Amino acid sequence: MKRIFSFLTVALCATQGALAQDADSIAFYQNIQQVEVTAIRAKKSSPIAHTNLSREEIEERNYGEDIPSLLANLPSVVISSESGTGIGSTSFRVRGTDATRINVTLNGVPMNDAETHSVYWYDTPDLVSSLGSLQLQRGVGTSTAGTGAFGASLNMTSAPLASKFSGRASLSYGSFNTAKQEIALSSGLLGGHWAIDGRLSHLSSDGYVERASSNLSSYMLQAGYYKGNTMVKLLSFGGVAKVYLAYTGLTAEQMAENRRYNPEGEIIVGDNVVGFYDDHTDNYTQINNQLVVSHIFNDKWRINATAHYTYGNGYYRNYKNDQKLKKYGIAPIEVGGALVERTNLLRKKIMGNNFGGLVASAAYTAERVSLTLGASASLYDGVHYGEISGLTEAPDFATAEYYRNYTTKWDASCFAKVDWLITKGLNLYADVQYRHITHVISGVNDNFDDTTEAMQSLNINRHYNFFNPKLGLHYSFARDHAIYASAAVGQKEPTRNNFTDIRKGEYPTAEKMLDIEAGYTYNTKVVALGINLYYMMYRDQLVQTGELSDTGESLSRNVPDSYRRGVELSLAVNATKWFSLGGNATLSQNHIKNYVDYIYYADYSDVVAFERGRTTIAYSPSVIAGTFFDFHTHGFAARLSTRYVSKQYLTNGQYEDLTLPRYCVSDLDISYTLHTKKVEKVRFGVKIGNLFNAKYCASGYGYSELNGDTLADRSSWAWYFPQATISALGNVTIHF
To answer: How far apart are CA 437 and CA 431, in angstroms?
Structure first.
């Protein structure tokens, strides 16, 4: 008995020691995983308008839709979906600025395409399921790597590696045959040093818009090693996407007849649509890799470095009706003794790209001062080329390549940020960034140049150097109250289209903005109130003027003076333990000073310039508002959210017949979470989208033409993207 007792005593002591060691390992493990997110995040004491979503909040809203759907009810946000369902080709705007002006990062690594500056969310399907947190900064925001933030920044982090063995299985199904299947496993911390996470997902949807289908497969793999004060983590994520094209809108007349109609893929014979091309699709594979090294030296110093590489390759295929062969560099073809100059054809546009670089930061924290130093460097290498693979009038036509061009883009930046507690409650924030860009494009483009009777030749080599200072104060007083003010400079290089869709000898210049903001917050356990004033003054903002380039594409020009100014209001009230409510509203003015609108005659023989004075910037609603009512008790939760977006102009000319009507849409989310002994929890949820069946459009486009010499002789044409009417999406997620 004594031997048994002695053995049990030793075993118990060893077990307690191991548990204590494991507890220490887990505490350190959880702490060091935060190193990679601190460099570019705004803190509570930062004079920057921002909203955070935690892992729990993200999970509650995750039914399989793209990331813009997560942001739908945040201040100043407007979302749109070409398929109408929030899956596939989705986008969002902040304060009226589009995706090309919103800096997006994951773990500090740029996600924006280096050429278009946009993020195509279906290239990384179901990324929502692998997020740990996100922060949406409005305005210039903090310095970060990648494309200049010219309206907002979206900083995301991947979910931290779990400290214990766990897993998740999730199934969703709903309207328009929308479905999601996901499984995830985490090893937990093994031997105090190793951890591995993995996720596999599949998403599919027929889309609200006809044939706007999505077939998306994705994965996420994380592996981490921890020793001493060092973490090394490898992430790999990405997916394969096949999306039926739906980027052509509908006229008001078409919507009245069938608002779900999709004109993409039409096969036209004579004046009749005789069918649709089945493979009128966008196909893309993207693989993202990150190697993260973090080290904590002591209580004051910590560093983080991330090497990254992204591989992308894909194509989209079109069926094009009644095309001029010369637009594709093809001479007339003799068929049956006659020359064919126009015909229906199959077009395939292909692209491949490689993007890699390094992002690094070092942070120093003392009692009253925190200092962050950061640097990044990246290289983008891409190729674009296109093929004509079939002609209706010439069945024996061999595949012909009609354009090929190459892009190389170097991007390097460094920044220093200081947060200084001057005195009790008063923080000084200073942030200085330097950024250099070299952008080279060469080869032959896909646009036909009427002046040379050949495909457009590209020979672009541009260099940019940006210095972006930011300064602000944040003052906390009376425990729950705070005021702040800041001034920040943001600068942004032109996109690929700004370079290719130009007049000969003309090049766009970089855009510059001075962002001045001030605000007040009041935060208690019961009430959270925020008021933020902003004034974003642009110099040389690039906007579409109505002019056409040498190749017939819409031309963007730098306008000398424009601005966005407004007030953002937010309120949340925890009325009881089981009920909360709140809302937000943005009231703004978005104007171009002394705008000149160019309108072509109906036959495009000439163009007339009209001085329009001060006009409203396109796609910039003066009112964006939202409310929520949240009921939660004993595992049951119900959330009703409503968002309102006022009228938007489709062009910068501010014409009342070229507008996107105001709309108001509500969503209801109902869920019940069950905890059992065998599994950690099971969540049953149903999201009813567009609860009151509003028939609305969230985006569109349009133009004018002249039948005389005055605006009274103007005719207008507008197209809209209808969003889904009432729909339901159910989900079951098991955590074990």
So the answer is: 20
- Residues 620, 648: Cα–Cα separation, whole Å: 6
For residues 194-199, give the mean pLDDT: 95
Instruction: Give the three-state DSSP class for 188.
Output: coil
Distance CA 37, CA 157 (A): 7
Question: Where is 421: in which H helix or E strand?
Answer: strand 400-423
> Phi and psi of 12, rounded to 5°?
-65, -45
Residue pair 653/615 in contact by the 8 Å Cβ criterion = yes
Give CA–CA dist 226/234, Å, rounded: 12
Choose between 588 and 25: higher pLDDT. Answer: 588
> Considering the entire predicted model, what is its pTM?
0.93
User: Beta strands 266-269 and 230-244: pairing type?
Assistant: unpaired
DSSP strand E in 325-368: where?
333-335, 338-340, 342-365
Count the Cβ atoms, other than its own, within 10 Å of residue 263: 15
Cα–Cα distance, 25 to 473 (Å, whole number) = 38
Say if residue 20's pLDDT is above 60: no
φ/ψ (deg, to 5) at 577: -65, -25
The tens digit of pLDDT for each residue in 511-541 reads 999 999 999 999 999 999 999 999 999 999 9
Given CA atoms 206, 211, 212, 218 in this order, what sign does their dihedral have? positive
Q: What percent of the chain has pLDDT over 90?
A: 85
Instruction: Judge whether 417 and 393 are in contact, CB under 8 Å.
Output: no
pLDDT tens, residue by residue, 109-125: 999 999 999 999 999 99
**What tokens were used for 424?**
């009790």
What is the DSSP-derived secondary structure letter of residue 27? H
**How are beta strands 681-689 and 454-477 bridged, if at all?**
unpaired
Q: Is the dihedral of CA 241, 243, 247, 249 positive or negative?
A: negative
Compute the distance between CA of residue 488 and CA of residue 534 in angstroms, rounded to an integer: 11
Handedness of CA 52, 286, 360, 379 (dihedral sign): negative
Residue ranges of the alpha helices (H) in 180-314? Answer: 252-258
End-to-end CA distance of the chain: 40
- Rounded to 5°, the CA angle 426-427-429 comes to 155
Candidate from 5-9, 141-145, 720-724 with smallest mean pLDDT: 5-9
Lowest mean pLDDT: which of 37-51, 263-277, 603-617, 643-657?
37-51
654-679 pLDDT tens trace: 999 999 999 999 999 999 999 988 88
Distances (CA, A) of 335 to 111, 205, 270, 399: 48, 42, 19, 17
Burial of 697 (0-12, 13-18, 19+ CB in 10 A): buried
Structural element, H or E, at residue 28:
helix 2-32
Which stretches of 199-324 are DSSP H helices? 252-258
**Tokens representing residue 580 in the block:** 């909360």
- CATH architecture under which domain 164-735 falls: Beta Barrel (2.40)
Read off the pLDDT of each residue in 287-294 and give the average, rounded to a whole number: 97
On the question of pLDDT at 3 being above 70, the answer is no
Q: How far apart are CA 109 and CA 411, in angstroms?
A: 13
Q: Which tokens hold the place of 473?
A: 């104060």
Alpha carbon distance 616, 597 (integer Å):
12
12 has a pLDDT exceeding 60: no
Under a CB-based contact definition with an 8 Å cutoff, are residues 198 and 185 in contact? yes
Cα–Cα separations (whole angstroms), residue 369 to 35, 300, 420, 427, 477: 17, 10, 5, 9, 19
698: its two tokens: 């969230």
